[in-house]
Specification:
5 strands, alpha+beta, five-stranded antiparallel sheet, 24% strand, 3 helices
């Protein structure tokens, strides 16, 4: 899921288990995971209407250039693979 906050910061949710949310905010430098409770997440972030796949590509390219934690890379790649498979099933 692609989300934005009131400051128009963009982030990708890589895991949501119903109680806790792990998201990767786009920022300069190395990308890291932020962990928030569902309540904290819902108070700050809103789903974006922008398409997820191009954003995933941007995040992965940024991670390749600037670096990212292993959890970020694994989460983004897993999400990208899942989205690609969902799209390929449509055709």
């Amino acid at each position: 899921m692609l989300v934005r906050n009131a400051q128009a910061d963009l982030a990708i949710v890589i895991r949501h288990d119903g109680e806790n949310v792990r998201l990767v905010p786009m920022k300069s430098g190395r990308l890291t995971v932020n962990r928030r409770s569902k309540q904290e997440f819902n108070a700050v972030w809103r789903e974006s209407e922008a398409p997820l796949l191009p954003a995933l590509s941007d995040f992965l390219a940024h991670a390749a250039r600037q670096g990212a934690s292993g959890e970020v890379v694994k989460g983004l790649e897993k999400l990208a693979l899942r989205e690609q498979q969902a799209i390929s099933k449509l055709f």
